[in-house]
Write a structure and sequence with these properties.
The chain is α+β, with helices and mostly antiparallel strands. The chain has twelve helices and eight strands. The longest helix is centred in the first third of the chain and has 33 residues. The N and C termini lie far apart (80 Å).
């Protein structure tokens, strides 16, 4: 039997449709959108597959993905941090871990930046001994794993200090022992509330001077740091307020050795001290190389021109080199800050109660592994994004306006 021929109209319509699709596919924009849509569909399919497996596994174990356990009593102690009791909820415990993570990260960033700038400049020193000592520091601490350094500072240095009764007295009221560092603490005096208004005026004056000097430097097209003018003005106004109030607004509370331990003052625990030292020294070695590379990226003609104008070496570095080097330093410096914040999760090795340590305890007690894990990932991601946003904002301010 002979097949009936395809009607001419249908054949022409199919041919026209195929040619239209071919013309559409030859458009670069359409191909890009189609390829990206196909890629997203594949990613969504893979994510849905794994999500279905996770849900099925949790259902077999009798678990559900929810955060109602955050309102239950935690029942475990946290050695340090903001106010917390074992009778508080899991939400409060995780918040304590988050605050501890932020505290060690912010202080670590500040201390690592200071170490990195000093060592980065020292690596370019004309003094052979200073240059070689800085190079040894960078090569040693940059190439030893951070976990080993944390264990070294904690077990090999801090825990080997004398006991409390034989504490090492560094300065007046500062004691160092295997239980940590004890030092005087500032407490509010009777005139503190009055002095706060002077501090507010000092801050306003500093911001005004900062804005004024920044506008003037831009008008003159000159490098410099407006903060070098704003900070002395702020300190001068605050000091004047200190002298005008009837009594000292701040007083020192010194630690006093009791029967078993020190009472009063401020206390830095061995875990926090080891964590801060490890993060700062380790990241400072990387920042030193970033600073060295940024300084060397400045054209040598800038040095020669500044010296020809009669500027002293420290003024050349302060007014000419560093303002230009910051444009090359800030982008890689952002990565080091992000790494420091994420490396704080290694504190679980020495018992410092940061977010990962507290989250792991909550995970083991509640059995809610996936919800706690997702919560920790979200928190670390948020901290990294905030840090990155702040550094990107500063980088845009330091960029050359063309």
């Amino acid at each position: 039997m002979s097949r009936s021929p395809i009607p001419l109209g249908r054949a022409e319509a199919a041919k026209t449709e195929a040619s239209a699709l071919a013309r559409l596919w030859r458009q670069q924009r359409f191909r890009r959108i189609a390829i990206q849509a196909a890629f997203l569909a594949v990613v969504a399919s893979v994510a849905a597959y794994f999500y279905a497996n996770v849900v099925q596994g949790m259902r077999q174990l009798g678990l559900t993905f929810d955060y109602r356990f955050l309102h239950h009593t935690a029942g475990f102690a946290i050695s340090e941090g903001i106010a917390y009791e074992p009778s508080d909820t899991y939400a409060r415990a995780i918040w304590v871990g988050l605050v501890n993570t932020a505290r060690v990260s912010l202080l670590g960033i500040a201390l690592a930046s200071l170490i990195g700038v000093v060592m980065g400049v020292a690596r370019l020193s004309s003094n052979w001994l200073v240059r070689q000592m800085a190079a040894v520091y960078v090569e040693v601490f940059r190439n030893v794993p951070l976990l080993l350094q944390l264990l070294f500072w904690y077990s090999g240095v801090i825990l080997k200090l004398p006991p409390v009764r034989q504490s090492i007295q560094l300065f007046d009221g500062v004691f160092l022992s295997q239980r940590g560092l004890y030092l005087p603490r500032l407490v509010a005096g009777e005139s503190f509330l009055t002095w706060r208004w002077y501090c507010a005026c000092a801050l306003a004056a500093g911001l005004f001077v900062y804005a004024l000097v920044r506008i003037r430097l831009r008008q003159l097209d000159r490098p410099g740091f407006p903060a070098a003018w704003a900070v002395p003005v702020t300190l001068a106004v605050a000091t004047a307020g200190w002298l005008l109030v009837p009594s000292p607004p701040l007083e020192l509370d010194h630690p006093v050795l009791g029967r078993f331990n020190f009472a009063g003052g401020a206390h830095v625990s061995p875990e926090f001290a080891a964590m801060l030292l490890g993060l700062s020294v380790y990241t400072g070695a990387f920042i030193a190389e970033v600073v060295r590379g940024g300084i060397q990226a400045v054209d040598k003609g800038q040095y020669e021109a500044a010296r020809a104008l009669g500027l002293k070496p420290w003024l050349v570095m302060y007014l000419v080199v560093l303002p230009q080097a910051l444009r090359a330093i800030v982008p890689p410096l952002t990565n080091q800050y992000l790494n420091l914040a994420k490396n704080s999760s290694l504190a679980v090795a020495i018992g410092y109660p940061e977010l990962f340590n507290v989250g792991t305890t909550a995970m083991n007690q509640t059995g809610q592994t996936l919800p706690v894990f997702v919560l920790m990932v979200a928190v670390y991601l948020a901290l990294s994004l905030i840090t990155s946003a702040c550094m990107n904002w500063y980088n845009r301010r330091m960029a050359i306006e063309r």
